[in-house]
Design a protein that fits this description.
The structure holds two protein chains of two kinds. Chain A is mostly helical. Chain A has 14 helices and no strands. Chain A has two domains: 38 residues, no CATH class; 241 residues, MetI-like (MetI-like fold), CATH 1.10.3720. The relative contact order of chain A is 0.14. By secondary structure, chain B is mainly α. Chain B is 80% helix and 0% strand. Chain B has 14 helices and no strands. Classes of the chains: A mainly alpha, B mainly alpha. The interface between A and B is large, with 95 and 90 residues.
Chain lengths: 282, 278
């Protein structure tokens, strides 16, 4: 018996307690989503998804992610380039500000856009005069989503780019590559897994955001309901099977996200280690 | 450090990328967030104080902070245990279980909310047994705490697990060779090294719990003064067009979040310095 581990019965007891807790709080909710969705048969399941309001909600959710994710991706690359490749005053403060949206309650994330664009808001009256609808319309849903997912690509890219260092880019520049060529041919291939990781997490949150979107949406069926809002309405109307059918789509998204995440973590570790190796040799 | 960075940086795009970063940050985050403080400062102190200290608001704060604190403590114990088991032992299915620990963060909060409610309400798989014993596991303080345990668990596990994996095995060997038994090695050698990670995990779970909305509102019951969490109260005030009231509650919550964020950063800095000195 090694000095570094416990006797068998303690080990087994600890594993047992951990598994019971996980069963109660993770495996059971996970299976409950699918069982509740399918408890009236596959026919009812498919029918409740093939409803115009459900389809409109899916469409809006996809549109929101389709706009929010690329915006935060471009920002993530720009921010991590500035932060990882250069030294400047106030860098740590900038990183703190970028992470800020993660510590804001979802409801507050929605509220700030109501204060900005709502009827009583700062620019609300001006918008109304010009017939521009932002709040209680898709633009506010997209903006609130951009806010809650704001740092998700940047915070994955910054450590990866920092670990890569500047040597490879400097070599490319010395050999006559332009800035864009260096970005496309040297930097982006080096950080591709970190980038994908950020995009996947950003996308999962963008499609699943509830609180922030709920504040700014106005809950107009078929128009301003995303999939999570659609689930809430169905649930509150006691249409449990339909609610869980819609929920099962998001649960599948969550599972796919976790699967890809584990896969990329494995790849990312290799990328980081390779970067560290380069760092050690120079 | 200085000598290395003094070297002239030949890479382009500094002004472009930093400029864009600051511009986009201001547009999406800073300007909208500042609206909160602008609106609050327009209120006047008395109105602000009145909104923040009304009995209904205080009850909501007590509930949000109380339930988050209790859930944080539960996660501290079980999150630590799970991290320990995942980092130290081998058993079938470990890889999959390790990946599933993040499930609460990956699952959209509305889905968590309706699922937990269906499990813990009177007819639910778990609820039907608890209700027999008079334990009301939904639409109560306990229900809110259950949702917050679910949402906070990954924070503690993910804070502790890497530290456990990176602990130098020689520490334990040294303790054992000096005659410490397993329990002494754990309490005197291993545990002190894990305290910073435990505090970080707890604070992150606690902070998330205070602001949590989607996974809580379905199971909460939402009775004013009893089972109404602070984020829901903001929502209710907004629906009544009481923008000032909503803002006041939000400002207090935001300040608490910022304080917790600063506290975790400080603690991490403090402990890393202390460990560095040893």
């Amino acid at each position: 018996m090694s000095a570094r581990t416990e006797v068998t019965w303690i080990r087994r007891t600890l594993i047992g307690i951990a598994l019971i807790f996980l069963a109660l709080f993770i495996f059971m909710p996970l299976s409950a989503v699918f069982i509740n969705a399918l408890n009236k048969g596959i026919g009812v399941y498919l029918k409740s998804l093939n409803d115009p309001n459900a389809l409109a909600a899916i469409q809006l959710t996809l549109l929101t992610a389709f706009i929010a994710v690329p915006l935060n991706l471009i920002f993530g690359v720009a921010a991590s380039w500035a932060i990882a490749k250069f030294d400047f005053w106030g860098k740590n403060f900038l990183i703190t500000l970028i992470d800020l949206p993660l510590s804001v309650s979802p409801v507050i994330s929605g509220l700030i856009y109501v204060l900005l664009f709502g009827a009583q808001g700062a620019v609300g009256p001006w918008l109304m005069e010009h017939g521009i609808k932002i709040i209680f319309a898709p633009p506010a849903i997209i903006l609130a989503t951009v806010f809650v997912t704001f740092p998700m690509v940047a915070r994955e890219l910054i450590p990866v780019m920092k670990a890569q260092g500047n040597e490879e880019e400097e070599a490319a520049m010395t050999l006559g590559a332009s800035g864009w060529q260096t970005l496309w041919r040297v930097t982006l291939p080096n950080i591709k897994w970190g980038l994908l990781y950020g995009v996947i997490l950003c996308n999962a949150r963008a499609m699943g955001e509830f609180g922030a979107v709920s504040v700014v949406s106005g809950h107009i069926r078929g128009q301003t309901n995303t999939l999570p809002l659609h689930i809430e309405i169905l649930y509150n109307e006691y249409q449990f099977t339909a609610a869980f059918a819609a929920a099962s789509l998001l649960a599948m998204l969550a599972l796919a996200t976790l699967f890809l995440k584990s896969f990329i973590e494995f790849k990312c570790r290799a990328e980081l280690n390779a970067a560290k190796q380069i760092g050690r040799h120079s | 450090m200085f000598s290395k960075k003094q070297k002239r940086n030949i890479l382009p795009g500094f002004h472009l990328t930093l400029g864009y970063t600051v511009f986009y940050l201001s547009l999406i985050v800073l300007i909208p967030l500042s609206m909160l403080f602008l609106k609050a400062s327009a209120m006047g102190w008395q109105e602000f104080w009145g909104a923040v200290t009304s009995p209904r608001t205080l009850a909501a704060y007590r509930l949000s902070f109380g339930a988050s604190f209790v859930a944080g403590l539960v996660n501290l114990v079980f999150g630590f245990l799970i991290a320990w088991v995942l980092a130290r032992y081998t058993f079938p299915g470990k890889k999959m279980i390790d990946a599933l620990v993040d499930f609460p963060l990956a699952l959209p909060t509305a889905v968590s909310g309706i699922t937990l409610t269906s499990l813990y309400s009177q007819n639910g798989w778990v609820g039907q047994h608890l209700y027999k014993w008079g334990i009301h596991s939904a639409y109560s303080f306990l229900g809110i705490t259950i949702a917050l345990i679910f949402i906070g668990l990954p924070f503690v596990v993910r804070a502790v697990e890497p530290v456990l994996q990176e602990l130098d095995p020689e520490l334990e060997d040294a303790a054992a060779s000096l005659g410490a038994n397993r329990w002494q090695t754990f309490t005197k050698v291993l545990f002190p090294n894990l305290v910073p990670a435990l505090i970080t995990g707890f604070t992150l779970a606690f902070a998330r719990g205070i602001g949590e909305y989607g996974s809580v509102i379905f199971i909460a019951g939402n009775m004013p003064g009893k089972t109404e969490i602070a984020p829901l109260l903001i929502m209710t005030k907004l629906e009544q067009y009481d923008y000032a009231g909503a803002t006041a509650i939000a400002v207090v919550m935001l300040l608490v979040s910022f304080f917790l964020l600063a506290l975790t950063n400080f603690l991490q800095w403090f402990f890393s310095k202390r460990i560095g000195m040893n």
